[in-house]
Amino acid sequence: MPPDFSSLNLIDAYPEPRPAATTVATLLKRMQDKGFVAYTQYGNSREYYALVKKADYFSTHMSGIIRNFFGNSVLRFASFFTESGNLTEAELRELRNIVDKEIEKKKND
Q1: Burial 49-65 (b: 16+ CB within 10 A, else e)
Q2: Which region holds residue 43: left if phi is over 0, alpha if psi is between -120 and 50, else beta?
Q3: In angstroms, what is the C-alpha Rg of the chain?
Q4: Whole-angstrom Cα distance, residue 93 to residue 84?
Q5: Which phi and psi (to 5°) does residue 82 adopt?
Q6: Nearest to residue 102, comparing CAs of 80, 69, 83, 74?
Q7: Can you give the pTM of this predicted structure?
């Protein structure tokens, strides 16, 4: 998605069947109310832009999921994800490599 976009650009970015314009408008309104996006008015149209970086948005929501569904335990989340995620052996090995790299970073700090 480009940095600035209209609701029509957003709808066009979806594959068929595309969401209804009212659905997108509702989503954008909710995101605006939460302070994630804002817009500039140009006549009858609005150009939306992000107020929050994607990584910050994702981090906030993942923290909420971990808090609300896993008792604020990243370990429980990781356990659930690895046991219920239908990961392949290769994916599990890659996940282990990621964890091992983070352990090494912690040792060196």
Answers
A1: ebeeeeeeeeeeeeeee
A2: left
A3: 19
A4: 16
A5: -75, -35
A6: 74
A7: 0.57
The model's pLDDT over 64-95, given as tens digits with 9 standing for 90+, comes to: 999 999 999 999 999 998 888 788 999 999 99
Q: Give CA separation, 109 vs 68, 74, 82, 102, in Å.
A: 31, 21, 27, 11
The amino acid at 67: R
Backbone CA torsion sign across 30, 35, 36, 39 = positive
What is the spatial distance between Cα 44 and Cα 62, in angstroms, rounded to a whole number? Answer: 36
Amino acid at 74: V
Dihedral, 34, 37, 43, 45 alpha carbons, nearest 10: -100
CA-CA-CA-CA torsion sign (10, 11, 12, 13) = positive
